[in-house]
Structures are given as C-alpha cells and as structure tokens.
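Page 42, continued from yesterday. The earlier attempt failed because a stray header line got pasted into the input along with the sequence. Redoing it now with the clean sequence only.
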Amino acid sequence: MNKFAQSLSNKAQERFSIDSLSMPMSEWIEKNTTLKKRAFTFKDYEFQRQIADDMHENLNVIKISQVGLTEVQIRKALGFLVRNRGTSLIFSLPDEVMYERVSKARVKPIVNEDKVFNTRHDATQKAVRSTEMMQFDQSFLYLVPALESAATSISADFVMNDEVDLSDQKMISLFNSRLQASKFKISQKFSTPSFPSYGIDLNWKVSDQHLWMCRCEGCGHTQHPEFDRRFVHLPGVPDHIEDLCHITVEFQDVLDFDNAYVKCEKCHHPLDLTSPDRFWLSQFPSRKETRGYRVGPFSTGALTIRYIFRSLWEYQKNSYMRGFHNTVLGTPYSDGSIQIPEVDIVACMANQSDLMKDLKIYQNLWVGVDMGQTCHVTIGSGPHKDDISIVGIYPMPVEKIVEHLAELCRDYNVRGGCVDRFPYTPTANDIFKATHGVIIPVEYRGQKELNLVYDEYEQLSHAQVNRTLFLDEFASRVRKRLMTISGFGHYKQAFIDHLRDMVRNESPEKQAEWIKLQGNDHFFHSSAFMLLAPNLKDIAYIQSGAN
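This time it went through. Structure tokens are written below.
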C-alpha cells in the first residue's frame, strides 16, 4: 500500500469504527476494542457472546463474580453509543464508591486506549470526558450512582443497571422511567442475586430463563451443570454428606481435587465445560416480555472445583454463607436467621381462624398501626411485652383510621399503642391527639434502641427507635414460637406473606438491616409496633414522672 492509501486508511480508522448493519455487537466489540493492548476476545467465556448481542428491551442477567460480565457490559454500552449516533445511555451502580471505581478503573482505560472512542470528530469538538459523563460524537454515556438526584435528571435511550440487588430498588424504577421519550427504550439489568424473589431473582422468575447448556460427549445428554453431587465428582467426599456446602475445611486432606471434575448427571462421563458446542436454551420460550440469563460457576471452565471449595471455606470462616451462594454460585439465599421460616409463623397461629373476638374480654390491649393508603392494624393482649399474644389483624382505609382508633381506645381497654409516623405524619399526629396520647407516633431513626422526642412545650411529640433492633425483637419472638396469633380471619395467608416479605440483610462489612422483598410487609411492621407499645408506655410514664 502506498503512503497516500495508508494515510487515507489511517484517517478512516480514526473517523469510523469497523462496522456493518449485520455485525452483531460481540463481533463489533472484538474488532474495535482491546484489553491490555490486545484485541478483546470472548475466548473461555463464550457464554458472554449472546448476552452482548442481545438488545432485548427488558433483559435481566443473574451473574456470579469474576466472570467478566461487567467488562462486557461496559463495552456493550459504549458500542451502542458509537453505533447509534445521537443516543444516550445511563449506566448505574449502587453507590458513589462503586461508581467512581468503575469509572476510573474500567471505563476510562477503554475509552482512552481504543481509537474507536477517540475519532477526529471527538478531538475537534473537544468531547466531554468526565467521571460521570462521556461524549462520543453526538452520543452520551452517563455513569452514575443509584441516587435520586441522578435518576430524575437525565433522559435516556438505554438504561443499564449493574448490581441491581445492591441498589435502592426505588431508584432502579426511577432510572427506567427515563426511557419514556426514546424510540429504543432498552432496559438491561445485571446483578449477583441476594434473596429469593427480590431484585434480579424476581425479574429472572418471570423471564424466559436462559441456561448455558452442556452436551455430554459420552451419552449425548443435554444438561445445565450445578454445584451439587449430581454433577461434581470429587473423590473423598463422605457418602453421608448430601449438600456440598456442608463440607468444611477439616475435610480438605481427604479430598482429591487433582482428580475432580464436573460429570454428566446421567452417565457420569466428564463434561467439557469449554466445548464450542455449548449453547443457551430458554426454559420458557413463550415468555416474550422479559429476557433472562443465569450465569453460574460452570458456565465457564475457568473456575475449578478446587477454587469453589476454597471460596466456600472462606465464607464459612466468616459465617457468611449467603455471600458464597450469591457471588460464587449465583443463587439467591435465605435461611431461618435471614427470613422468618413459614413453619414458625404457622406454629404460632391458633388452630381456629375466627375473626377478632369481642375485645372487652381482654384486660390489656396494645395496638400497632402501619400507615399507608390502606393501614394495617395489629391488636395484642397481655400484661407486658414478654407475655403478649396477637388477637386481631385487619386492614383499614386511611380515611377512617383516626376515627376507628379513637373509638377503639374509647370502647376498650387499650393501654397503649404505636403508629408509624411516616409517610402520613399529620394523620399520625391526629391519631395521637384523638386517642389522648394512648397511641404514640413512632419513627425509625438513630442507633439508640428507644428515644422519646418532646416539643418546645416539653410535651411528648413522638418516639424514635432503632429499626433493626426493633424488628429483630418481633422476629425473634415468632422464631422462638413465644407468641400466639389469632383473630386473623381470612387474612391468615396475607399475614404469613407479610412476615416472609422481610429479610435481614447482613454482611461482614455492614450493619444488619431489614429490607422488604416486594413491598408487602405491612403486618410485619404493625405487629412489631404493637410489641413495642408496652415498653414505650413504661418509658413514657417514667420520664413523665421525672419531669
């Protein structure tokens, strides 16, 4: 090639990417981007290719750690912007720390190194290249933390949410509302899972559920290998241990990892996890609205059985089995310490499911109210907080709640109660006045177990409680079956569902907190408020005497 032709070729490469209308995104990524100064490749991670190519409007991917999907997401996002001029894409991460780390360590190196993102036009027009916003010709990437300020200020054609389960779920919804004016309206979410029926797992369950299949070379059986005894051949595993997650580090000397392999569940022949014949298969192909992919430890041959067990033992040492299931196996996880077992809730429930009896037969009544458009009321009976049974649960429209609670306190022996101060603070204050201070507004705030707040006239205004400790107390009583529950009528299943909708989220690095799975948690809160009422009344009485 003469020097003039070479110059023209160089200018073309600076101005245009290697592209065609028929080129899938995975091929575009390989031809136009690099990793450590070498052409990017999907080698050893072929499962990524279809995910990169898929432009479904509602795509959800369950992933594990250390399989390069964030790297692919970034390149897919950048590729979309370069290949579709005049578009915008929001890429969200859970918090500011993660957003800054990904921007500086992942996105900027790609943008700075690869010519396709630094065309002559970008240089001439002095394209914006900040931590939170990057311009490519007339297209823009917005890299943001999942905060309300970012979720309400940008319109987009494509929203890509990374680590959905670590993000505020309300913010995820807000981000996706920014697609309304776009002709593309693409929403794609990626995350390691956390709890069953929450975040990415909830989306996966309603999707077409693609699994990365492997065909046995011995018998031809097609399967999706999992981390269990059906698929893991590991000499030395005791016969009586059915769950591989129960194998502790004490067994390491008898385990033969050198001869371990993933096997066919049918004929036990070793499976080739690197086979080019592997493919994605939808479990529910008729589901068209939501696309789903699940990436597990055996979606690639790069993660060995030895590595998985070493990870298992590390999580066992830190007593954090949820972390192992979520990040190494890519499965949601819950146990009795995370979510109240249904068997314990049912064991507390009286055999009869009658509606609330005449409350006049009870000497000491306590009330808890969770506020909303529909308020949820729990009534308990007992002399003190260590001896209380639930005798009634029911919903009540917010328009009637003040009058109803005033009548309840007037007609029956209600000794105390708590009402959620938010989000209807004026209504909670009206309840406080209408019940003559019997039912006290309570808000979740602070680290102190219980704190009373007084107004400028030194009159009790409301109470503050440590949310985690407050909910722990009620959950513990149900788990230990120390509370009888009756008067639920036809709300039995609703009560069970509400208590099961809350999970205790804890990790070695963060303080524990209770989070809701789908938002149907109201009777959990109203029951916890009811249980708090005797203790709150005692403290209020003591402090009023001191004053």
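Notes: Residues 1-16 have pLDDT under 50 and may be disordered.
Reminder to self: strip header lines before submitting.
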